[in-house]
């Protein structure tokens, strides 16, 4: 039986990068078709293919790591670097939107009334739901840390409970934010205020949903005994992502909700 | 002027030689526990210098005005004059008139400040051809 003489993971050929690329193509061209020909078929097809790709690709990684033992320490180190670099790229993504916000708000143009918030805009009270949202995310940062320690200490039940609580807090944030969006006295079309507000907080909300989903997958894996007290990188990656989402919110809250009001 | 003098004595003004309301004193109202405190004159001079920059750009004008209006004070007429001249250099009449609206807004309940400031700025307003919101009929929105 042939063995590799190194600790690295030479992955088997996989169709998922191709299906992922095809999904990207179908979604983008589908978007154009939707805009011009009022048909959402192509885009929906792309979306379904994307979901299938993600499910199967990550399922395969779990198989390779948890069940086949390919995630040796050097491999795990590579995965850590990968997650850190990805989160860093997301930081730059949000940096752009903060740049846009400060560009427009530090020196508001005469078209806005020379002031920020612009004339006619009633901003949300930062000490109402936005403050609650801040508390919710901060609390979820505590509960996810509790989960980590529980996993490391082999406390199965506590890990499941605290992770469930973390996810519930994430869902609570999403629900509150959705309600705020519905009730807000301004829309995305309300000048540069509306644009910066909804694009920045909107992408953040999307990341909360992504993060919550990642944590939910970890919850299912924890229930199915995938994690050990020494090796649970999938969870760590999810926790890092969750903390990143929390930090982005804090910047959003201070800049847009509080200073920007 | 009479009314101003009466109000001065009622509010126990520091100096009756000043023929203007006391509330326009531009105190940089930061109550630090230590460190050198900027005087009113230094504050005013700093802002006059800021707006007097010959090649001030539109961004700097807008930023300066927003920062200045963010303070807990009504800017001295000399600062406002420098800002209005900056608007002239930048061909921005809209912002010049907006500055007058901002002064009225910053005065809050002290209704005598705005007419006083307009009075002080009248020569500049005439020279630069800046109408007041009242003259344009846009003060009652």
Task: Give the gist of this structure.
The complex is a heterodimer of chains A (261) and B (141). Chain A has 261 residues and is mostly helical.
The name of the CATH topology of the largest domain in chain A is Four Helix Bundle (Hemerythrin (Met), subunit A)
Roughly how much helix do the residues of chain A carry, as a percent range?
A: over 70%
**Strand proportion of chain B:** under 5%
Mean pLDDT of chain B, as a whole number? 85
N- to C-terminal distance of chain A? 68 Å
Q: Please report the number of helical segments of chain A.
A: 7
- The CATH H-level homologous superfamily of the largest domain in chain A: Cytochrome c oxidase, subunit III, four-helix bundle
Give the number of helices of chain B: 7
Q: Over all CA atoms, what is the radius of gyration of chain B?
A: 16 Å
Strand tally of chain A is 0
Low-confidence stretches of chain B: 1-19
What is the CATH superfamily label of the domain at 40-136 in chain B?
Cytochrome c oxidase, subunit Va/VI
CATH architecture tag of the domain at 40-136 in chain B: Alpha Horseshoe
What does the average pLDDT of chain A come to?
Answer: 97
Domain Heme-copper oxidase subunit III family profile (chain A): 4-261
Pfam families (chain A): COX3
Subcellular location (chain A): Mitochondrion inner membrane
Family (chain A): Belongs to the cytochrome c oxidase subunit 3 family.
What would your notes on this structure say?
Chain A: The chain crosses the membrane at residues 16-35, 41-58, 79-102, 159-177, 197-220, 240-260. Chain A: It catalyses: 4 Fe(II)-[cytochrome c] + O2 + 8 H(+)(in) = 4 Fe(III)-[cytochrome c] + 2 H2O + 4 H(+)(out). Chain A: One of its GO terms (cellular component) is mitochondrial inner membrane. Chain A: This is Cytochrome c oxidase subunit 3. Chain A: Keywords: Membrane, Mitochondrion, Mitochondrion inner membrane, Translocase, Transmembrane, Transmembrane helix. Chain B: InterPro entries: Cyt_c_oxidase_su5A/6 (IPR003204), Cyt_c_oxidase_su5A/6_sf (IPR036545). The complex is a heterodimer of chains A (261) and B (141). Chain A is mainly alpha-helical and 261 residues long. Chain A has two domains: 1-70, Orthogonal Bundle (Helix Hairpins); 72-258, Cytochrome c oxidase, subunit III, four-helix bundle (Four Helix Bundle (Hemerythrin (Met), subunit A)), CATH 1.20.120.80. Chain A is 75% helix and 0% strand. Chain A is built from seven helices and no strands. In chain A, helix 1 (16-37) runs antiparallel to helix 2, helix 4 packs antiparallel against helix 7 (233-259) and helix 5 (156-183) packs antiparallel against helix 6. The radius of gyration of chain A is 21 Å and the shape is globular. The mean pLDDT of chain A is 97. Chain B has 141 residues and is mainly α. Chain B has a domain at 40-136: Cytochrome c oxidase, subunit Va/VI (Serine Threonine Protein Phosphatase 5, Tetratricopeptide repeat, Alpha Horseshoe). Helix content of chain B is 59%, strand content 0%. Chain B contains seven helices and no strands. Chain B has helices at residues 2-10, 40-52, 58-70, 77-89, 93-107, 113-128, 133-136. Chain B is globular. The interface between A and B is small, with 9 and 13 residues.
């Amino acid at each position: 039986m042939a063995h590799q003489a190194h600790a690295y993971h030479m992955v088997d050929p996989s169709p998922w990068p191709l299906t992922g690329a095809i999904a990207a193509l179908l979604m983008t061209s589908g978007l154009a078709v939707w805009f011009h020909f009022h048909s959402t078929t192509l885009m929906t097809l792309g979306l379904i293919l994307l979901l299938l790709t993600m499910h199967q690709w990550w399922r395969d990684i779990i198989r390779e790591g948890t069940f086949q033992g390919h995630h040796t320490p050097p491999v795990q180190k590579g995965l850590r670097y990968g997650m850190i670099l990805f989160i860093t790229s997301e930081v730059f993504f949000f940096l752009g939107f903060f740049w846009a916000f400060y560009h427009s708000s530090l020196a508001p143009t005469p078209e806005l009334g020379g002031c920020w918030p612009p004339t006619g805009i009633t901003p949300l009270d930062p000490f109402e739901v936005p403050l609650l949202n801040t508390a919710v995310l901060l609390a979820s940062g505590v509960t996810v840390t509790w989960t980590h320690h529980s996993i490391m200490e082999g406390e199965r039940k506590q890990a499941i409970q605290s992770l469930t609580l973390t996810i519930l807090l994430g869902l609570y944030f999403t629900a509150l934010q959705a309600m705020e969006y519905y009730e807000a006295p301004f829309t995305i079309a309300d000048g540069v205020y509306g644009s910066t507000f909804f694009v920045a907080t909107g992408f953040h909300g999307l990341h909360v949903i992504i993060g919550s989903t990642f944590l939910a997958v970890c919850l299912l894996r924890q229930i199915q005994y995938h994690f050990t007290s020494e090796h649970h990188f999938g969870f760590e990656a999810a926790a890092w992502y969750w903390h990143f989402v929390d930090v982005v919110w804090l910047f959003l809250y201070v800049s847009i909700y509080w200073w920007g009001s | 002027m009479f009314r101003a003098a009466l109000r001065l004595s009622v509010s126990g003004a520091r100096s009756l030689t000043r023929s203007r309301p006391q509330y326009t004193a531009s105190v940089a109202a930061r109550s630090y526990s230590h460190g050198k405190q900027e005087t009113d004159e230094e504050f005013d001079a700093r802002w006059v210098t800021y707006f007097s920059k010959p090649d001030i750009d539109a961004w700097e004008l807008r930023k300066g005005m927003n920062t200045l209006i963010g303070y807990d004070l009504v800017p001295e007429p000399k600062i406002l004059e420098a800002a209005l001249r900056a608007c002239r250099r930048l061909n921005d009449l809209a912002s010049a008139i907006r500055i007058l609206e901002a002064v009225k807004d910053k005065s809050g309940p002290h209704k005598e400040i705005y007419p006083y400031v307009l009075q002080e700025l009248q020569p500049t307003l005439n020279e630069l051809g800046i109408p007041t919101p009242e003259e344009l009929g846009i003060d009652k929105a």
